[in-house]
Amino acid sequence: VWLSKLSSLLGCNSVEQKIYVELNNTVPCVRLLNATHQIGCQSSISGDTGVIHVLESEADLEWPLSKGPNPPYMVLLESSLFTRSIMMKMKNESNRVAGVAVVVPNTSPPEFSPHTTCPNENTGVYSDNYGPNLAHCNTTVWNPRGNGLSYEEFDFPVFSLKEDNETEFIKQCYLDHNRAVNGSAPQYPLCAMQLFSHMHAVTNTPTCMRRNDINFSINPGTQKATVVSRDTLLLEPCFLGTLLLPVFPVLSARFLDSRAFFWEVSTGAEGSVSGFVTLLAAAQALREVTHEAPPTRNILFAFFQGETFDYIGSSRMVYDMENGKFVIDLDNIHSVLEIGQVAVHSGTNLFLHSDPVEELFSSFFVPLTWVKNLVNNLQSSTAGLSFLLVEPNVSQPLPPSSLQRFLRAQPIPGIVLADHESAFNNRYYESFYDNAANLNLTYPSDLSPEEQLEFVTDTAKSLTDVATVVARALYKQAGGNESLVNNIKADPKIVTQMLYGFLVSSNNSWFQAVMAPELKNILSDPPEYYVGVAMSSTPTRLVQYLLANLTGAATNLTQSQCQKPDELPNESRQMYSYLWVQGIVPPNSTERDSFCVRASVRLTKAVSPAFELGEYASKDYSTWTESRWKFIKARIFLVASRDLEMLTLGVGVAVLFTSLLVTYFISTKADVLFSSTREPASAAY
User: What pLDDT is recorded for position 346?
Assistant: First the structure.
């Protein structure tokens, strides 16, 4: 019995493999929801199928949208045609479009940003009550290249394909079977594609969260959505000092996260990585000088997650400060220096952005000199470097930044350091093209991966200079010894190693050495910075362990002692974190020199306050959620004509009824057909 079942299963799989060609290198667009609506893409519950049409120009849309005789169509297009104009035309004719597959090339177009022109415009500081003339990017459009595709809703699936053998196979299938010749309809069989990306969540976050609380279905996964949130990484306090000091300068990196139109392809090179790599390098540059001559104030480094989705991390930190759930409160903050996008220079200057509304009312809330002091500390820290720090020539709002969430709660002196005076220099903001190539991160072709890890690129040299300025300015701002300021320098080798690890491959010898043994499997090529709940917190963990190694101290604790330091004198988890790391492999050895790192690194959850308060329709906090799904799949196959399908169905039905009639006839006459002639029994006398 089992042998026959196994044979049956194997036979079915064999038939399926002969019919379908599975596509393995695909990434879908998924559905996201907030307080008011839903965005993204999805297929029907059974997947969407269409005849493949390769779009060669925008004029070629006429075939799938009106002239083509075999709708619906699965449109395959190059990334150069992945524009708002084309996508909206297909959205408006979605009854003839089954789905879209976008071929992502190995080279980048001149520009592309699927984000909006005004990122996070509804959750920043500017509103009808605060700087109304600056709200909604009225004076400065930060992302003029943004086409808003990431915030549209499409009723059909949209997948990305890599420019590889699979894509060439699809195109060849189209050429062999689907391409019209002289305007005539192609002959069957036709090459078709089927995309599966059905999303369970619908409408908006309040609807989904309400359905989460109601057990109304046999399948508990049917209407679930989950909160887009991750960890916020904090260093508290940064260096020598005491928590009893009344004021802290605060340095916060821009983001740890990024996003793109497609799920799981967010590299955020300029948008995220340039900022937090600079911050990490600045922290390392301050290590020695703060031990030698501790400043009079503590420094708090903060790395926020979820900022792309309406400032999840920073809004949670401010909320905790306001409610006494954080190590300090808002009144303890002396000033904020935030690192924005700093890697793409259009000239020799970097720009210091401040809030013009705060400056206008500075005599009532914050002394103007506090902001000016921070500006002066930054500008005077560029000695011996190749660029200057200048303020914008015009009065304009702060760029999208975590600082805005602090200003919503309380006037605080703050500066955002960025490489743009007005509009972003980043041509690929929040897109899959914001990668290593966008930062000109290139290596000689004859270098091995380990040699590339050590190769100091021009980008690394540039960010090293920025990190040096940041470290010097922070030391001054914290009241450090001015005579030691020019001795503070970031390490270009560490910067180049971080850029390689975060943008090329985190699975390298240096990252392996600073990670815990149980986390070695998260190292990848390269990490992804999308913050959805189905993703791992790889960037958070990488930054946590790097920060601990760059600012902490190696101890002589054993692994068991490292796990339970409170049992030892002079060790305390209340003051420090203890991390067991793999260490390097010494020469002529196969075993790693593992050790315990003591550091002041803390992790706190970056869950939006809206979900803690149960206010799923909140206008003050992020309400973004991500839909769940059962599976994601894509495949191609040859489809027969409708007439042949109906003929096959008709023959199949006829054979079925014929077999039923034959079976019925045989069963009713079984006693006659299968009776055996018996000899009469011998009579007994």
Answer: 66
